[in-house]
Amino acid sequence: MAAKGANQGRTDGRSDDEIRPIRLHAGVLNNAHGSAYIEWGKNKIMVGVYGPRKPARQEGLRPDRALVRCTYNMAPFSVSDRKRPGRDRRSLEISKVLSEALTNAVLVERFPRTVIDVNVEVLEADAGTRCAALTAASVALADAGLQMRDLVSACAVGVVDGRVVLDPSRDEDNFGDGDMPIGILPSSGEIVLLQMDGALGPDQFGSALDLGVEACRRIHALQRDALLMRYCQDGVSRIEKPPFSGYGGTDTIIMDDEEVPPIWREEVME
Amino acid sequence: MSRDPETIMRSLVVRDLIGTGKRTDGRSLGQMRPFTVETGVIAQADGSARVRLGGTELVVGVKLMPTGPYPDHPDEGVIHTALQLLPIASPSFDGDMAVEATEIARVVDRGIRHSGMIDMKGLCISPGERVWGLYLDIHVLDHDGNLFDASTLGIALSMKGMAFPNSRFGMGEDVPVPLGEMPVTLTFAKVAGELILDPTAEEEGVSDGRITMSLDSRGWVRALQLGGCGHFTPEEVKRAYRLAMSSAEVVRGSLR
Amino acid sequence: MIRGDPAPDGPKRVGMIMSAQDNDVANERSSGNLVLPGDRIGRTGSIRAGNGVMKGERYLIATQMGLLIRSERSVHVIPMKGRYRPGKGDFLIGIVKDHTPSRWFFDINTPQGARLHSSDTPWSVDFGRTGEYMNVGDVAYLKVMEVDDMGRADLTMKGPGLRKLRSGQVMGIRPSQVPRLIGRNGSLIAAVKRRTGCRIFIGKNGWIWVDGEDAGIEMVRRVLDAVDERPHMGGVSEHILGILGEEERG
């Protein structure tokens, strides 16, 4: 795609309609009924789905449909200052808009009086976590085998120096003029997540929305690949735990099956 | 595997098998599960590690931030260890897990704190005023038993090569944090009268008690905790210590 | 309606996945394909929509990740995963999770659970004495009589083969894999029973009750793992027979 405004580059050298590198894997946790791991730029997010199931606490259940209950949680080490563990206003709001967006995709009327828990764990945050979380969450729901009318694909659009740019980075988010996360059901094109923060004028609003929706379609292709690869490595579906992308000084230590405590081994043989 | 540990009935098979010296996953009673530790995985943290011990997975993030000292220890740093038993990690974590999480965090904390790995006075910036707060956060993503051992392993290895982030707080150059030898934590479950090392969640579920020991590099016990509504004879505790000493050597050997 | 670009082909894949053949409809997937929720699999009205397929305004849409099966008159999706949904007449394994003076409540691998009235058993149970016949944790082989709007099932233990199962243990596979475990005309499960010497009851809910010698049970466990791991590959039966043969030689 043609780089717009290439003369005024972005802080990380991307063109205006370029998304940061994305790695997306489905089926990465043993216990969760469905799971996905996404690295989007420096964002690292793990999503695990449980359900439909009977929750420990029954209140709030709907007699005609399942409740999609998304919990967005940030690890204390995910941001530069340590974040106190537990819920805060921001994570509560994001949990709510993600739950609502996903409710649009799941055929909730098939599972009355149950809960579908979507647990989003942000291990590292670097702008755009809610779009990355929503993208991974719908993959985890599909991986859980839930009945859905569609996946949900998401990407944010920003305004920096009066230009509309795709997938703003942390600097662009902090110092830019606006940020608009968008989530769509790709087969119908319907928008299920839309928020906006900053300033967006009449000459930009339409083009920003169109650019965001087009980006969501690119994200959808990645989601498809992640789900299809889950079953197509060698035809066997097992949980694969891909290594995390590391930073300087990354080291991997592996202790394998061979190393059994020698003294104890003799004891057992006696 | 798609087996839901809650909904599938546990018969006595796990116990019976252990009674004959075998385990459902084919390990011997004194065998640890294979583990993988990836360090340097979180850029926002001063130290980090992702630990996979069998089916258990957790991420440790370490942050160093200046704070005030405790009045009774004006020249020592502050260590704060927290562990989250997140609902993502197990179908059974569908409620308040604060009590269980706090116990694990405190036992792991004691093992790290008393092992001599961290020089508490070395965390002092200005006595009585400013010291380094060392925040050790453990985020559990997949629970298949023995979070104690995995947590200690993750914390100890995540701190390797860590530096005081002086530049971030306008205090000059970053300098390496001096570290002593790491502790090794080993947990045994008592099942059918046998001690088994590194129990899975299934084995923990059928156990008659648990004993966790953190050993320093000389083999001295630095933290100890019985748990799980069980009881041990003095002989069993002594045996656990002997077994822990030999197992700790194996773990240390694999880390070298 | 906004029409998206057809998804890129991505890396070449093994198995039964083929590229879309119908150029008439963008994104349409053909029989034998692995489909995902939201995939278009035909035009509405052209063919009957079966399990895992939803009628959209213009297109039939897959609603579950699975293998697309297209016959002359209908199209449906065999799910890769997913929880069991009870159907009238299903035979299944249940585990008692509670009882009242006149009924038992069973876990049958569904979120809603199921119930069995004391009059639907081969025993004549006095009011208040249900716990003497079956208690929490007990296992039974049961049949689904009715399913209500909420997905709750009413069970019966009256009928040939239906019974309380003593000793033994329950193992699980994906409910969608149960037909593969049974094999054509029950040939595969018959071979498993013969070679392992185990007594086996298969529930349509994906729960399998097994009893026998330790070595036999272990072999059954390996067979179930193998069935569970290969949701869409051909040759499952051959693979299983391989496992059994290998055990026999060893």
Q: What do these coordinates show?
A:
The complex is a heterotrimer of chains A (270), B (256) and C (250). Chain A has a five-stranded mixed beta sheet. In chain A, strands 6, 7, 8, 9 and 10 form a five-stranded antiparallel beta sheet that branches. Chain A starts with 21 loop residues before the first strand and ends with a helix. In chain A, helix 1 packs across helix 2 and helix 2 runs parallel beside helix 4. With 270 residues, chain A is of the alpha+beta class. Chain A is 29% helix and 27% strand. Chain A contains five helices and eleven strands; from the N terminus they run E-E-E-E-H-E-H-E-E-H-E-E-E-H-E-H. Chain B is 25% helix and 30% strand. Chain B has one domain: Ribosomal Protein S5, domain 2. The N and C termini of chain C lie far apart (62 Å). Chain C folds into three domains: 66 residues, OB fold (Dihydrolipoamide Acetyltransferase, E2P); 75 residues, OB fold (Dihydrolipoamide Acetyltransferase, E2P), CATH 2.40.50; 80 residues, 2-Layer Sandwich (Ribosomal Protein S8, Chain: A, domain 1), CATH 3.30.1370.10. The longest helix of chain C is centred in the last third of the chain and has 16 residues. The chains are: A alpha+beta (270), B alpha+beta (256), C alpha+beta (250). Chains in contact: A-B, A-C, B-C. Chains B and C meet through helix 1 of B and strand 14 and helix 4 of C.
